[in-house]
Sequence to fold (73 residues):
Amino acid sequence: MKWLDRIPLALLLPLALFLALAPFLPEPHLWEKLKMLADGTLSRPVDIFDLFLHGAPLALLVLKLLTSNHLKH
Fold:
């Protein structure tokens, strides 16, 4: 995954954390959408878009950390 290696961790980390936690009040959208997904109520296109918008950078960060060369022994 060379394309993922080209994304700087210094850019991805704050972006992932910010979007995962935004908006801070009353509750983060990502948490709200994950609860909707678990309840089976995530059906509106805007809610599905929100899940991907707020979750994609976090998913990329996790993938980058799991596949990075310096973490492998």
Q: What stands out?
A: The mean pLDDT is 88. The chain has one domain: 7-71.
